[in-house]
Design brief:
By secondary structure, this protein is mainly β. The chain has one domain (7-277). It has helices spanning 7-21, 162-174, 188-191; strands at 44-55, 61-75, 79-92, 96-107, 113-122, 125-137, 140-147, 151-156, 179-185, 194-201, 224-233, 244-251, 256-262, 266-277.
Length: 284
């Protein structure tokens, strides 16, 4: 990993990545709408306890603790909305700081539109506000940002949104494929960055043992895979090292456990401590 991000800056793409891991569906990476009866992700609310794994190299971080809360609503026909809040406490050799990151997204089921709104607080001070809409039209992806300032971004047509990316991963896993690469736009870095996401998928049944928590038992028989994803930023030329790596256990209905993020000079672990399965409207 490059290991050049500050600890607080790293949480932006990290949390978007974790958000992506709970958005799963079925079929391939195209922009086909769901049909009645097609399985989608499980609407759910998940809570992860986040902690520092290792601090190494030039990092001055001595401890990180926090809680990451997701709520996923919607259906395979209507699209999915995700709300997420991550409050973290970061201790260094000099001080302890609190970061509060909030993200809401909505993605159309056919991949035609992706809305993202994020707020990042350092203590009680708003440090960054991002508001954008990505639309797939005219053989391209058009990103219109109203925050942090009015701007437009034109991306290639093969760029995937998070829901599309996870559909591609799930389909590949079911088909026994072990390597998947895609260009993914998630709204990270003030809505300016497209990452090349290079994923390695484990064998069926790989990954961590499911935690003993409420609502997990109905999921014990679902297919699951261990997934490792390296995220490369080629915006300033071909990157040889990833910005970060992200590992987790992915269930076929979109619930994720055993989260691990590696930024080179520090790592984060996320333990699923609470899960509530919510009603998912049926497609008609």
């Amino acid at each position: 990993m490059k290991g050049t991000r500050s600890t607080s800056a790293a949480f932006g793409p990290a949390v978007v990545a974790v958000t992506a891991c709970v958005i799963a569906g079925s079929s391939g990476a195209g922009v086909q709408a769901a049909t009645p009866g097609e399985p989608g992700l499980a609407a759910h609310r998940a809570v992860y306890e986040m902690s520092l794994g290792q601090s190494r190299g030039a990092s001055t971080v001595t401890d990180i603790s926090g809680r990451l809360v997701f709520e996923v609503q919607g259906s395979a026909c209507a699209g999915y909305s995700v709300s997420r809040r991550f409050v973290s406490h970061i201790a260094s050799e000099q001080s302890v700081t609190t970061n509060d990151q909030r993200l809401t997204t909505f993605e159309e089921p056919d991949g035609s539109r992706y809305r993202f709104i994020s707020r990042s607080y350092h203590g009680e001070t708003l440090r960054e506000s991002v508001n954008g809409l990505a639309t797939r039209r005219d053989n391209a992806v058009h990103v219109d940002l109203s925050e942090p300032q009015d701007s437009e971004l034109l991306l290639p047509s093969d760029v995937l949104f998070p829901f599309q990316h996870l559909k591609k991963l799930i389909a590949a896993a079911h088909n026994g494929e072990t390597m998947v690469s895609a260009n993914v736009f998630e709204g990270a870095d003030a809505g300016q960055t497209v990452y090349e996401a290079s994923a390695a998928i484990g064998l069926p049944g790989s990954g961590a043992v499911l935690p003993v928590i409420a609502d997990i038992e109905p999921l014990s028989d679902l297919p699951r895979w261990h997934v490792d994803i390296a995220y490369f930023d080629h915006s300033e030329g071909l990157a040889e090292l990833p910005e970060y790596e992200f590992s987790y256990t992915l269930l076929s209905n979109g619930v994720s456990t055993d989260v691990f993020l590696d930024y080179g000079d520090f790592t984060l672990r996320g333990e699923l401590v609470s899960l509530e399965l919510l009603d998912t409207p049926a497609c008609e």
